[in-house]
Design goal:
7 helices, globular
Length: 163
Amino acid sequence: VLGVFGFFSGSTLRWEILMKSLKVTLKPFSDTRWSSKAAAVKALYKQLPDVKCALINIIENGNLESKPITKNLLNLVDHEFICLLTVWNSILSSIDCVNVILQKETITVCQTAKMIHGLIKEITDLRNNRIQILFQDAEQISVKMSISPSFPKKRKKSKKNGF
């Protein structure tokens, strides 16, 4: 997420191409503001097909020095990336919702404990029951973006018979 934002924000021409494609701008995230991570992932997740179109547009119309970086970024957007982005969006959205409520001054310790316990249950449920639903969502996004909805095959390591 940070690499995509940094790439587009590093050039006014690339930023203009991106802004023509998106409804909402991509968000940076900071180390001190935790909710900024949720906002950054959500912005990319919601607009990933448009970001891909912007990258293709840069490859076709951009300058020569940005084309190799753009191609590398475009190659990173595969089914595995989409699955990870989908899962992270779900997790960070849940955490951010609780985070915002916990920052209110009127919340009691008892309410805080209930919120944190609920968050733990939600993340556990996601891991145990809803992960397949998220993978199905990611598969639909991959198909919509004309990306093969399969994970790359890892090369098998061959063992050397040494004496």
